[in-house]
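HUMAN: Now follow C-alpha cell order:
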Amino acid sequence: MKNEAAQPKNSSGVTAKVVSGSDSHIAQQGSVYRSGVSAESVGSTMLWLGRISLPAGRRTSAHRHEGHETALLMTAGQEIEIWSGAKLERCETVRPGDYLFIPAGVPHVAVNRSLEDAEFLGARNDPAANESVILMPELDGIVP
C-alpha cells in the first residue's frame, strides 16, 4: 500500500504534468513557435513556456504584445538584433547566453542577419499557444 502522505495533492486533486512539446507553427509576426507549457497543453492559466526560433536571414514583422511581458534566453545561433521603442529607435544585439525582456506594449522587431537559425527558450504571462499580437505595419520600413 502506498503512503498517502508521500503523494501530496492540492485540494482540487490536480497534479504535475509532463509535456513532450508540440509541433511548430509560424506566429503572426513570423517567428517559429513550439509550445511546451500552455493553456492548450496543460491547462495553464497564467504562463506560456516554449521554444522560439528565427530562421537565418529572416526578421519578424513590427509588432507589440499589449497584454503580456515576454522573457527569452538565446540558446543557439550567432546573434540577432532586437529593435524596440515607439519608433524602433533602439537596437540591441542578443547573443547565445543572453536574456532578453520585452515589456508589454513595446513595439519591436527581431532581425537575424546571420547564416544560422537563432533559438530561444521563451516565457510569457499569456498562456495561449497563439499569443496576442498586434501587428504594426506602419513601422516595418524603419528597420533596414
Notes: The chain has one domain: 30-139.
